[in-house]
Design brief:
Elements (H helix, E strand, L loop, with lengths): L1 H48 L6 H18 L4 H15 L6 H6 L4 H12 L1 H11 L1
Length: 133
């Protein structure tokens, strides 16, 4: 009987390891998508801060980046996925959003960056938050 249980447990180790790998890959894909959206948005803001004119093509691309980030994130963090979706909506027409709405919906770039870092590196984000408190 014990041999049977050991054999069954050993046979389950492969599927469990595969499941863990698939979950890691899913999380990595979600993090990669939000990282891309964050970095592209920061690059755009840097250009604007340097005097560049607003660019509708770039803003349309940001709509796509943020929308694409929301999709895989829904499996990892539904709240952050919704924030990415709202960020996508924001870039459809930034002029329609007040500063208060941006803050209320939690889509300030710094807030999203913090949420991303907490998801990507929870122990490091927690330590930094602790030191900054």
């Amino acid at each position: 009987m014990l041999d049977f249980l050991v054999t069954k447990l050993i046979s389950l180790m492969g599927p469990i390891a595969t499941l863990s790998k698939e979950k890691r890959e899913l999380k990595d894909n979600a993090l990669r998508a939000i990282s891309t959206a964050l970095q592209e948005t920061k690059v755009y803001y840097r250009a604007l801060d340097s005097g560049a004119e607003r660019n509708q093509d770039t803003e349309a691309q940001l709509v796509k980046y943020w929308g694409a980030a929301a999709i895989p994130l829904r499996h990892i963090d539904e709240e952050l996925a919704m924030i990415c979706e709202q960020k996508s909506e924001y870039w459809l027409n930034p002029n329609n959003w007040s500063d208060e709405e941006v803050k209320e919906f939690g889509i300030k770039l710094q807030d999203v960056t913090v949420a991303y870092r907490q998801l990507a590196m929870p122990s490091i984000a927690k330590a930094k938050r602790f030191r900054n408190a």
